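Internal tracking record. Fields below are filled automatically when a chain is submitted to the structure queue. Please do not edit lines marked as system-generated. If the sequence contains nonstandard residues, flag them in the REMARKS field before resubmitting.
Queue: standard
Priority: normal
Entity type: single polypeptide chain
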Amino acid sequence: MAIVKDCLKEEIAETLHDITVNGKEFQYKAIAGNLILRNEQHLPKASIFYTAYFKEGVKDTTDRPIVFCFNGGPGSSAVWLHIGLFGPRRVLMNEQGEGLPPYQVVNNEYSILDLADLVFIDPVSTGLSRAAPGEDAKQFHGVEEDIQSIGDFIRQFITTYERWDSPKLLAGESYGTTRAAGLAEHLHEDQHIYINGVILISSVLNFQTLYDCSKGNDLPYPLYLPTYVATAWYHQKLNEDFQKDLNKALEEAKQFALTDYTLALMQGDKIPPSDYERTVQKLAYFTGLSPDFIARSNLRVNPYRFCMELLRTKNLTIGRFDSRFTGESLETSCDFPSYDPSFEAITGAFTAAFNQYLIKDLKVKSDREYKILAPINSDWNFNKAKNQFLNMSEPLHDVMIKNKKLKVFVGSGYFDLATPFFATDYTFNHLRLTPDLQKNIAMHYYDAGHMMYIQKKSLDQMRKDLETWIRSAILP
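SYSTEM-GENERATED OUTPUT FOLLOWS
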């Protein structure tokens, strides 16, 4: 049993387990522990906690991929991808994706452990990872600082476990995709570690496409529109023709977003009154919102107000991470939601299930709190952007050109109002790659939200998509 007390000693807990995936049972080894990051004087800087899974009986690791997984935030541990998607155990959910008490983990028949070994990484200040005593944790809390520390961890890990010869993949979700894109280039340039594949789930590479980061520019509004349409469709707020066919509604919405809506927004205050009114009516038609609300929003409906407004007459708030979810509004007169029903529906389940799994199955005991989410987002150092919008599609573009064998898997949820799928489409449509390199990108879409794998239907489809991609792109 590993007892993680400080950052001065590396400790591991090693256990052996069985799993059945695709009807085939096999054994795997789980190793939960920490690696110490050191400075130039070889003194400890930080302890990074990880959980690694290795399939037993593998004699040749040259054709056995290893996937380094992390979530986003910034400030999130890897718990969501760990017991939600990739790992050998998953938290028990209902079909829609709500936690089922008593919260527990079950065999994950959708795990990709049959295809690749897995390493789940908790960045410094998340999970059980901490800065060393006397070290300021803020030195790890930034775009470049974070990439550097995770890159150092990966180099140490493949050295410790002798995996330099394995195909290496990165898997990130949300801000984890920001990290993954930068990390792929960093490892290539600074460590000469060439990555074979990058898995981007609920991607955010170009922060100009997000409302939260884009006050004063109109780009996000057309990119959010298709997700508004999908959400309105799910909650039966569209006209009868659109309600019959979501794909038709989405295609028409995307066409409008790229043409008349963008043209209207680009005219700013100079838009003719007739064009303004026509755009108001069209947006109401696509979103299920009232023309009056859209006019008061000056054609620019931000996602938080959308969450409050769509079902306001029912006193319901829409989920931001997953707009399929609703919850009773705490304050009916507010313009902005005071909570996210989709976040509340799953966080308790993941927290309880993982902490029990950590102690009971992985045999890890610690006097520290396992921080599912650490409050470091607001203090994150974004100075890499240098008074611009952070855009990590640039390092991804660069490394894909330098390493033409690098393959990219992109997964997006139709009901994700945090990182909308059309914003991801926009980003990848502007990577400026040749047609041949564009073939190295596989785009996939799911009928769920930010963590689409909480819905069993999407989890099943994602497993199939990942298996096809790994077998064809990574192990041809």
